[in-house]
Structures are given as C-alpha cells and as structure tokens.
Amino acid sequence: MNDQTFNGLGNLKHLKLNNNNLTGEMPNKTFEYMTCLADLDLSFNKLERINLQTFVGLQNLQNLQLNDNKLNYYIINFPKGSFKPLESLTRLSIHKNNFLSWEYSTVFPDRTISDLTMLEILELDVSSGLDHKPILGKGFSSLKNLHLLNVSSCTVFTLENDTFMYTPNLTDVYINYCSLRVYSKGHEVFSKLMNLKVLQLNASNQPHPWIEENILFALISGLSETPIEILKMSYLLNLINSPSLSIIINKISILLNKAPIKELDFTKNENVHVSQMDIPVQVPSSIRILDLSANSLKVIKLNVKQVIFLNLEDNSLGNYLANNSLMMEESSLEYISLSNNSIYKLHTTIFIGQKFLRVIDLRLNFLKDINFDMNSLVDLENLNLKNNKIKYLSDQSIKKLDKVFKNNGNAKIDLSNNPLRCNCFTLPFLNWMRNEHKHFNNFMNYRCEYENGSFSLPNSFEDVILHLQRDCTNHSYLIISVSFVVLAFIAVLSAAIIYRHRWKLRYLFYTAKLKYTSHRNMEEKFE
C-alpha cells in the first residue's frame, strides 16, 4: 500500500483490511483521502509499526482495530503524535500484539495515547513485569471520556493504590487472563473509581493464578462505596486450606451490602468445598443474578429469595440433589441452570414453591424421567432436557407436563439428543409427543432408536411415528390372529387326544365310578 492506494474513495465509511497478510510498517498518509471513514479494521495481519503520519486524513474515524498484529508496545512502533489525526476516535482495539512475559513489562506508551481525547473504549495488552512500571501512565489523564478498559491479553497485572489514578472515569473494567499481583493493602485499588459499574477479574490461563482470600476481601471492600452493579470473578481462589464457599460468599456479601450490586459471578475456583453442616449461601438483597458455575460443588444450600437468575451449571451436585432440595424457601427465581451436574434424579420437592420459574435448564445430565413435582411451575416457559438419558416419559410425567401446557400454551420442552425409543411399547408416549408437537423444540429434528439398534433419519420424526403406529396396529392384529390360531390348535389337539384315547378314558371313568360306588356301599353297611 502507498499514499495513492485509496485515492478516489473519499466517501467510504467502512474499510475492512483484516486477514490480508499486511506486513511491516504502515506508510505515511496511507488513508489521506478517506476523510469520511468511520471504521477501519487492520486486525489479523503482520503489521509491526505505525508511522507518524499513517493516520493523516482520518479525522472522522471512530473505530480502529489493530489487534492481532505484531505491533509491540515500543515508542518506536507508536511514535508520539501518530494518533493525533484521530480526533474522533472513540474505540481502539490494540490487544494481542505482544509476546508477554513475567519478567518484562508490556505497557502501552502513554505519551502516544494521550492524543486520543475522545477515546471511550480501549482494548490492550498488559504485563506488569518485574519493574513495576505504571500500567496506565500520566498520559491517560487526557482521556477524559475513557469509560471502558478491556485487558484481554495479559500475564501479570499489578494492582496498587494508584493504578487507576489517571483513569477515574472508568465505568467498566475487564481484566482477563491475568495473574493478579497486589502489593498495597488492596482496599484502595478500586475505591477511587467512583463511576465503576462493571468489574471482571479473570485469572484463567495462568500457571498460578490464585490470590489469598484476605487480599480478595480487601479488593472487594474497596468497591463498597462505588456504584458497582456487576462483579465477575473467575479462577481467583484455591480453597484447599480455606473456609467453605458459603462462608466466602457470605463474607463478600457483607462487604458489598452497601453497594447497588445486581450481579455476582464467582466461578471456576479450585478445591471448593461445602458441607451439609454449612450455613446457606446468602447474598445482598440487591442481587438479581448469581453465578456459581464450574466450582466442582457437591453440596449447596441457598437462601437467595430475591435472585432471579441462578447459574449452577458445571458442578457435581447430582448425588446431593437426588436427596435434597435446593432453596431454603420460596423465592423470586425465574431462571435456573443445573446443566452438566451428573444429575440422575431430582428430589421431588426441588421446585416446590418456585412459582415464578420460567426457565429450567437440565441439559447434559443423566435423567431418565421427570420425577420432580411441577405443581408450582405455573409460569414455566422452557424445560431444557437436551442430552439426557430419556428413552420415554412415564404416564405420570406426561400428566405433569399436560398440566404445565394447560397453564401456559406457549410452554416448551426440549428432548433433543436423548436416546428416545421407537417401538410399540413407547408408541403412546410418541403419539402424545406428536399431538403436543408445538410444545417441543425442534420436534422434526428428533431421532429415535429402533429395536434393531438403528436410528431414524433426521427431519422425519413425525413420519416415523405414523409408520410405527401402522406397524404396531398390524402387529396387534397379528398377535390376536396368532392367539386365536394357537387356541384353536390347542382345542383341536385336545379333542384329537380325547378321541384317540376315548375307550381308555371310558374304562378309567367306569373303574373309578365302580370303586366309588363299592366304597359308599361298604360305609352304608357298617352304619
């Protein structure tokens, strides 16, 4: 490319040059004639350097994607002033450009980024290294409109009391794939972000990502005076020698009790344990979404009556839920996910009193039937039973679902990827499915297994049932006919045997009669 490549395209607003094997440096004034351009995508190339006048002419550009290149964060690759033409830029994606290490820091040159005074969203790489270089230097103080920071490629992120000193207007902070290092007391790290509403801390993909509970508690305590609404934490704790999950969640809840927190995610932690003797998990009264997925939980007690959305998927609650209920009392719960929990049976009372439930997700388990009480589920809209072990539903389960369908004509159930059986025994169940097909998601895509082990073809489920109905009817007639033939044969055979041995039978009859008469005469004589 050169400074004439885009000559004549002055009215173009969107330009995608991603995945084009662009290499080396971007020449000066490459986009000089593209004064109306609003979106420029240069991602997934092999660019190594931005020149001082590369972006001349892009004064109306709003979105610039430079991610997934080889633009290492050195001042020589991003010279001061190279971003100055980008007067209207509101979003900059410049992550996944560095080889990150634990030893050396990777910090974007703040003198260069200081020219982006209209910037609102920034996605970048971070590694604090061993030299503790400030991640968000003084140049970031010019970014008065910056409200979203997404660290999506990272090794170590050092959190200190002054980490966000120059970015006080942040509302959304996402620190992903980082091992968190906290040298300060912790409680002041986020306390100065007085507009903070969303915080995500994700330490996945790191060899030793965990932090100590007291440090986590200190970080969270700093949020108590902020307007935080969403807090997401993943891969942060190894609880092998720590209190149970319920104690930790309850401690977090106390620390956030004054904050207007609406969503709390605490997922993918190591060596989590909860015993049946532990107190129930409680959360602040403002919370509506609670995510405790992927914690390897084997036991859980909940007292979260104000929660609307509850995610418990990817745990190991199968044995516990076979013999115990989940909620301590009636709640406002509308959505619950228990998928992938090795559930083979649910306690009958698990959903009793949960009259607001609209969605129940039980995918990827080992259920063979619906054995739980559904009388309270008057608002149920979706029951997801995909990828279980259901061959057919019992008459009792069908009655339960009929009641649900009666309460809500739009209620749906999903039995996809279950080993449904196609035979005469399951025909009543299959006919019921066909009659109620509007309540089954992807009904025509269902498949079932025949007695010979073969499977029905996709997109033919209704035809399969109709064919099976005819076959089973013919089979019934055949059974009746064969039964009559067998009975007739037995009758004829019996008659033939009697006829053949008629004289012998007559002899035996008269012999027995004579003995009976003689015996009776003897008794009368002695009397």
Characterise this structure.
This protein is of the alpha/beta class. The protein has helices at 110-113, 213-221, 245-255, 318-323, 395-407, 427-435, 461-500, 502-526; strands at 14-16, 23-26, 39-41, 46-50, 63-65, 91-93, 121-126, 148-154, 156-159, 172-176, 179-182, 198-202, 230-234, 263-267, 289-291, 309-311, 335-337, 359-361, 382-384, 412-414. The relative contact order is 0.04. Helix 4 links the parallel strand 16 (309-311) and strand 17 (335-337). The longest helix has 40 residues, at 461-500. The strands form three sheets. The chain has a 16-stranded parallel β-sheet with strand order 1-3-5-6-7-8-10-12-13-14-15-16-17-18-19-20, with no helix packed on it.
Break the fold down into its secondary structure elements and pairings.
Layout: E1 14-16, E2 23-26, E3 39-41, E4 46-50, E5 63-65, E6 91-93, H1 110-113, E7 121-126, E8 148-154, E9 156-159, E10 172-176, E11 179-182, E12 198-202, H2 213-221, E13 230-234, H3 245-255, E14 263-267, E15 289-291, E16 309-311, H4 318-323, E17 335-337, E18 359-361, E19 382-384, H5 395-407, E20 412-414, H6 427-435, H7 461-500, H8 502-526
Parallel strand pairs: 1-3, 2-4, 3-5, 5-6, 6-7, 7-8, 8-10, 9-11, 10-12, 12-13, 13-14, 14-15, 15-16, 16-17, 17-18, 18-19, 19-20
Helix pairs in contact: 2-3, 6-7
